[in-house]
Amino acid sequence: RISCATSLKLEIVLVKMGKAVKKRSHIRHDGITGNPELYEETSDESFSAVQDSVIQSIFDQLQSPKTEDRDCGANALATLPQGKNDALMLIKSGIVKACAPLLLDKNAAVRHSATGALRNLSTVGGEDACKLMVGEDVLTPLLAFLKKFSKVWTHAKTEHSAAENKSEKVDSSNEQFVEAVTLLWNLCESSTLAVSICDQEDVIDVLKCFLDVEKYGKSSVIAVGNLLLTLSEDNEHAVEKLKSVDTGIMNILSMNISGEASLNPRDLLIRILAAGITHNLCNGDLSLLPDNVQALVGESIKLALHENVFDSMSVLLNLIEGNSLEGMEEEADRDKHIDSVFESIDFHLSAQSSALILLANLCCSNGSEDWEDVTSEDESEVVNGKDESMPKTIAEDICALPGAILGVFRQDSSSGSHVLQLVLNKTIPIPENLIRTNNGKYAKRWKSLVLRIKSLRCDAFFCLGNLVPLLSVQDFGGVDNLFQAWCDLNQMLFQTNEASTQSDLAEAAVNTVRSITEKLKEVSPKSFEKLSEQDVRILCTAVFSCPDPSIVACMVRILSCVGVSVAGSPNEPLTENRGNIIKMIGSCLLQVITTDGQLWIVAEALDAIYDIFAEDHVDTVGNEIALLQVLKSVVEPLKQKGGCIEPILIQWHQEEAHTVCGWNTGDNENQ
């Protein structure tokens, strides 16, 4: 069957097979002045008021022969940008070219301050700022710094002793190295040119030795691991370079940790980064690796997803409010403890986000990321119900998770650790008591956690949307468990208005609901007969409350799946409840057809109408909603917009098509 909606619009998220391929999103830890999303956007006018005086002063300090001035200028630059516009204006002023040479300053404090300032510009300014910084040639001194100081830097174990002995300080050269590598990571995440330059300069050869946790410490391994993971994505040159250290990566992946409960968040993140690099080294096909390696990857993902960060945030909130500070009389001790809990949660969130993205991408190996646009108006053919225009990898050879990875999740699925529950837990919205709180001097850091949880939920929805089409119902805990998850997601999204207020989250979430809907339609269509009229009304209302057309189209597909499932076969008598559900869905789709201005969405709704009312046993419901009369009223307007209605109605019973369109049976051209 030819879908006229498909001929009108190619969906970038690969909606046809329920798979949304998501590249790794950039996770930034402890920014110099915080998370970039925390800043209010400032207008060009407000910032230009200080441009002449303050920026010129910083320029003078950065170029001063005095060490103290250069250090002061770099520190001032780190605190100046308060939003993306600020960062972009600073970069366009040429400040990067004045600050970047200080990465090679003879004074360690100046080098450290300059590295922090540049890293902060890349964080606050985001992708656009990073591309500008690459254009300002920040990579030349940055790579020179890494090559020069990585050769002489040997004292990286101080962070371990500092953690054990509070009187020791973490070595500043360690911090500077981490800042520099993280700056390079920001640039490579945002610029393919930066990745190419890193390949030319053999950055991997310089940094691969720093994957040794015992020798260089966890902070350095995390920074280098993030960078190497980015560099090795779809990059054969980097993959070949990294294959020489695959033993070191395996050592990280199989870190000998005494008991799952003692696994700290840094260890979790390090293992996930190693798992991601391993995934890249085999070009995304873990089935090529031995079962024990696959199992280590699966175990790393599973361990990362087990932690409930809401519990940790509740503990942190009690600490901030002074409810759990027994034995901490000194304010300094209290602040240190709170800082450590913040850091722990931050690394947990990073590990979980990376784990979800890795798990989502594992569902899209074996070439599925290379699907091409073959759904043009002329090329789409359907033979025996199968779209022959699809590449073979889509239509016939859909990949699944390697068995050894699934085995890890199946080991204790009876205890609630099956893959559905682990991922679904990360879609839960943050409790209201953890959002509406006044945290005093920790307010900005707390807001950063809240924003990161929202980002984590998006990752979870993308992951779940990719998993559902590939796994068996048993992997999700059975049909009842999968249907309950479907109901919970609908309630979460549509009764709380999340789908209409948070577009990024809504798109990922609604696509996930659609994937589960299609799965249930395939394995247990009768599940939808349990729906009440109120449940269906919520879905129908959501269609008109979502401002994004792609989300509306996805909601139409969901209603189509539910309607077809409830309609059943012609041999099944139509019960009153099923008839009412179909009536509500049909009325909603007709409203879309008559009111939506987007032609391709109207085509999706027409497709859905055809699917739901294809059999004679639902004709009575069609009569109740005046189906044919409404369609007849929109024929001419739709033909004037683009003539998309003929391919749909031509599939109807001949008699009904004649009734609606007034076609003459002998008029071949009109037919």
TrEMBL record:
GO molecular function terms attached to this record: unfolded protein binding
Positions of the SYO1-like TPR repeats domain: 418-641
InterPro entries documented for this protein: ARM-like, ARM-type_fold, Armadillo, SYO1-like, TPR_SYO1
UniProt-listed Gene3D superfamilies: Leucine-rich Repeat Variant
BP terms from Gene Ontology: protein import into nucleus; ribosomal large subunit biogenesis
UniProt xrefs under SUPFAM superfamilies: ARM repeat (SSF48371)
One Pfam family hit: Arm
Family statement: Belongs to the nuclear import and ribosome assembly adapter family.
Alphabetized PANTHER family for the sequence: HEAT REPEAT-CONTAINING PROTEIN 3
Designated name of the protein: SYO1-like TPR repeats domain-containing protein
Upper taxonomic lineage: Eukaryota, Metazoa, Ecdysozoa, Arthropoda, Crustacea
